[in-house]
Amino acid sequence: MSEKFIPNRLALITLLAACSVILISMGLRQTFGLFFSAFEEGLNCTRTEFGLAIGLQMIFWGIFAPIFGYLADKFGGNKAVFIGFIIFGLGIYMLYAGPNTGIYFQISLGLLVGVALGATAMSVPVSEVGKHFPNEKRTIATGIVTAAASVGYFLAPLFTQYSLGNVGWEQTLKYFMYFILFGLIASVFLLSKKDEILKTDVKKQNFTEAMKEAFSHKGYILLLAGFFVCGFQITLVATHVPGYLQDRGLGGWTATILLALIGLFNIVGTLGIGYLGTKYSKKILLSILYFLRAVIISIFIFFPPSIYISIFFGITFGLLWLSTVPPTNGIVAQIFGTKYLSTLFGIVFFSHQVGAFAGSFLGGYFYDFFGSYNYAWYIAIALSIFATLVHLPINEKPIVRAVKEF
């Protein structure tokens, strides 16, 4: 398959819109772990219930990522993301206005926010940007979008911790509605690609053919397995690190600083991996990333707890936090092309969210059952070794399709 890239303003507008969308959605998503004590006191929520809500959020995020991906591929990413932000606002409104206990807590924080993230967070915005850029520039473009999530990761926890301490959790959630409104406006400018990428000698595919092709490709299955690990690890950290650090004698601001550092240094990590993805094998980069995660998590849990270890973890794990996204998305686009990229990456992202559910729920379950998060951390380390190995056999070569005969 040959491609000719023609630069245009449409790509720039879409890139800026996607950055704004992801900054809001992923930034707000990153703050929910800071609410755990407020929900315990204000809503009589146990850590298992809180972990279950975040786990459901991850599952519904994953289920609806390919659904919204299909809608984006068919009708446009701006429409899919606009609908997502409306659902996001409804979930946050229910969370502070009620009913917000029992099953309603799971519906608002789990189901509605999760469905909304399926449209607004990561897979659709990243893939829509990826459609505008050729293979040699795609990981840089998607790295920029992913770095915007990092800005949200850095700013949102700082704002949330300050707001929780001054006006309480209900008013803080009301403030979130203003950010969601901004995301709603930005989503309008997430524009579909025109014919800037010209393709020759390629057989046209329908949706069913694209799905069959992907699931018959061993590399695609291995990407599904690898991205499961990413979801398990980052959701375990985002959801349970505040409680883990509190149990080890470190104050609430330690967790806030750690999460903020993750966001700050993820900017460097995603931009760096975006550049490296244009120079080196994407699957090798992924294997290195997961191996380094195993090392960093081991240092974090086996060394005596301190503010310095927490800062070390925030910086180093931040460099690796969303750095898996540009090469993973890049491999999917490189192998299968961009026509169904939002859908195909959405399916890969569903695997990520199954892992996220496991990380969130098992973290809370192990704590309530054993009184410790340790077993969840041990699983995270073992999964890193698994992911290090599982990416190596992936064949990154593009699929060559014959011209369709009539």
State the main characteristics.
single chain, 406 residues, mainly alpha, two-stranded antiparallel ribbon
Could you please describe the fold and organization of this structure?
The chain is mostly helical. It has one domain: MFS general substrate transporter like domains (Growth Hormone, Chain: A). The chain has helices spanning 9-30, 36-43, 47-75, 77-97, 103-120, 123-130, 135-187, 207-215, 218-247, 252-276, 282-302, 307-320, 325-336, 341-370, 374-390, and strands spanning 2-5, 197-200. Helix 3 packs parallel to helix 5. The longest helix is centred in the middle third of the chain and has 53 residues, at 135-187.
The CATH architecture comes to Up-down Bundle
Taken together, the total number of domains comes to: 1
Which term fits the overall shape? globular
What is the CATH T-level topology?
Growth Hormone, Chain: A
SSE run: EHHHHHHHEHHHHHHHH
Q: Stretches where pLDDT falls below 50 for ≥5 residues?
A: 1-6, 195-202
Average pLDDT figure: 86
Number of helical elements = 15
Strand content: under 5%
End-to-end C-alpha gap? 20 Å
Specify the CATH class: Mainly Alpha
The CATH H-level homologous superfamily: MFS general substrate transporter like domains
**Gyration radius, rounded:** 20 Å
The side-by-side strand order for the widest beta sheet comes to 1-2
Number of strands: 2
> Main beta sheet: strand number and arrangement?
2 strands, antiparallel
Proportion in helices: over 70%
Counting helices, strands and paired strands, the structural category is: mainly alpha
